[in-house]
Amino acid sequence: MERFVTRGQKRPGSDGATDEAPRGSEKKRIKVEICDDEGVKEEDEDAAFEEFSHPIPWQKIEADGLDCDYALLFSKEEADHLFKQLEEEVVYMKGEEAKVQVFGKVYSIPRKQATYGDEGLTYTYSGVKHSACPWTPTLEYIRDAVTKTTGQTFNFVLVNRYKDGQDHMGEHRDDERELDPLCPIASVSLGAARDFIFRHRDARGKQSHRHIEPVKLELAHGSMLLMNPPTNTFWYHSLPARKKVLLPRINLTFRRILLDSKK
DNA sequence: TGGCTATCACACCA
DNA sequence: ATGGTGTGATAGCC
Q1: Which residue in A7, A16, A40, A82 has a CA-CA distance of 20 to 30 Å to A248?
Q2: Which residues bind substrate (predicted)?
Q3: DSSP 8-state code for residue A135
């Protein structure tokens, strides 16, 4: 069974007049598709709250073992500006660095990637160790904006650039060995809106024991998706190809990498 | 040791 | 019929 659900409309009865809306008290509409054998259950989104310093309308996205928060972090004008700045500043991997080995065969990854972060940090992707470049001004600005709204600090960002709808990323989880398991991953989107799909690890494959429908959402220009633990443990995510998308998208995933003393 | 990663083939749908 | 999309098979490396 599949249903499209629009969640997060303004609560009936909320006066909606307060400037200092606590997190979750006022919602923007985004299209979230939550599918479930028994249909959709509406949760009280106000039940979840944390003290954030900036009042932003948050959208809670929850399923079994999945816990995300979605918000528009930047206005269109600011997001346009940031996108342009990143197009000038970010230097992407090329050549051998942009290749990946899958089932013995070597491919160029279907997107461009770059890693930035605190000095000396490294990140392993598909068995290849990348060292982080020093932060650029725009990446620092966005990082700080994320920190202000989430209260979380980050020492690393993975930049993915999808030149159009043909560029994509296959289903995966982020490497848990290197990541601080208690720190959420903050995913900032700039440019073309793209579909984003979560699938539960027990609902993959031909004969999976559980029937858990995927959670699908669209990541808008200037948005931020916070993936809270334990989401990354149970849910794979992907950015599927979309032939109709003709414009580029830049995605920034801010993380906290453990200083590699232990692996 | 097992889980990862992209592509291809093919089924399904409108 | 056609094109876009979703799912499974693939089988080597660390």
Answers
A1: A7
A2: 103-105, 123-125, 175
A3: P
A124 labeled binding residue: yes
Residues with CB under 7 A from strand C: A 101-104, 127, 165, 195, 199, 204-206, 214, 240-244
Q: Where are the domains of chain A?
A: 57-92+110-207+220-263
Distance CA A122 to C1' C13 in A:
20
Q: Is the CB of residue A177 inside 7 Å of nucleic acid strand B? A: no
Q: Which two tokens stand for residue A227?
A: 């993936």
* A36-66 per-position pLDDT tens digit: 433 333 444 443 444 455 578 999 999 999 9
A91-107 pLDDT tens trace: 999 888 888 888 888 88
A13: left (phi over 0), alpha (psi -120 to 50) or beta: left
A126 beta carbon < 7 A from strand B? yes
Residue of A57, A133, A51 lying closest to A92 (CA atoms): A133
